[in-house]
Amino acid sequence: MKITRRKFMHAGLGVTGAGVLGFPRMTFAQSYPARPTTIVVPFAAGGAGDLSARVISEFASNKKGDVTAVDFRPGAGATIGTAQVADAKPDGTTLGLYSVSPYGTTPHLQKVPYDPMTSFTYVTVHVSVPIAFYVKADSPFATWDDAVKFAVDNPSKFRWGTAAVRGAAHLATEAAFRKAGARAIFVPFKGGSEAMTALLGGHIEASVSSDYGPQLDAGEVRLLAFTGSEKVGIYPNVPTFGEMGQPIAVEATYGLVGPAGLPKEAVAYWNDLVVELQQTKDFENYLKIVKGVRLYWNSEEFTERAKEAYTTLGQAIKELGL
């Protein structure tokens, strides 16, 4: 949607780009955000996704004075909240938290009420959080190979869970198990925090998500692998799916999206805010909690990478017959 300044020409007043009868007229850029903004999170509260939305919301509200709220809309593989963003009016009052699954994988596997290629404005990315395959600290599985061997030797006895059914973490792990000839039982959850609760309660043997930071620091979980392609610097001894040669390797990238046609002024506002946020102590503390890495993509780069992920993951899903 293109925003232009109307030119008022009134007989005897000669008003151009200003208010009639002496009242000033503000442009979209000057007034945005004039109303509260809602960031829709397509997952349950708790976990890295929650914190990744809140770190932006709290900075906008507390430091910038622009009221921003977080609205949790989990369900249907994170497509309910994602669809809400796609259907929103493109005035900058509704944004969504981006995570690759509902944009890059789910649309290839089930019918969704949006098109990742045309339904959104990809605004900005602010963090990358490694997705891990992890178990309880007292688990008998010390390595990824231990878990896979058990799943191969004991069909349907190894239970594992994650959020975003048919999401990136789900597919990457399922593909890895299939490659090994393992028959493991997948247990779906609405959010990574729910999967963590089930893991610590002994209801599943492993979880795959980016929601392990606090529990790792508390010594409650053990990381067996990362689902990404690159080594995670602070965990050099934890193998990655990429170096293992697994069929799919993915990381958790969080950012902001809006409905298609979001004004460029709104896009610029949130990009500027994220750049400013990333220099703060609050952001450093957030990175420590979620075990994340500072990452910045502007709208142009984000759009290119999101569409590339959609295409690449779709090809992988087709080749694997998932």
Number of domains: 2
Binned strand content = 15-25%
CATH structural architecture of the largest domain: 3-Layer(aba) Sandwich
Helix fraction? 25-40%
Distance between the termini: 38 Å
Number of helices: 12
Quick one: overall form? globular
What is the CATH class name of the largest domain?
Alpha Beta
Overall pLDDT level: 89
Strand/helix succession: HEHEHEHEEHEHEHEHEHEHHEH
The whole-angstrom Rg is 22 Å
Tell how many strands the DSSP assignment holds: 11
Low-confidence stretches: 1-26
* Main sheet: strands, sense, barrel: 6 strands, mixed
- CATH homologous superfamily identity of the largest domain: Bordetella uptake gene, domain 1
Structure explained in plain terms:
- The protein has 322 residues and is an alpha/beta fold.
- The protein folds into two domains: 35-128 and 251-320, D-Maltodextrin-Binding Protein, domain 2; 132-244, D-Maltodextrin-Binding Protein, domain 2 (3-Layer(aba) Sandwich), CATH 3.40.190.10.
- It is built from twelve helices and eleven strands.
- The strands form two sheets. A six-stranded mixed sheet has the order 2-1-3-10-4-11, sandwiched between helices.
- The chain is globular and about 65 Å long.
- The chain starts with 27 loop residues before the first helix and ends with a helix.
- Residues 1-26 have low confidence and may be disordered.
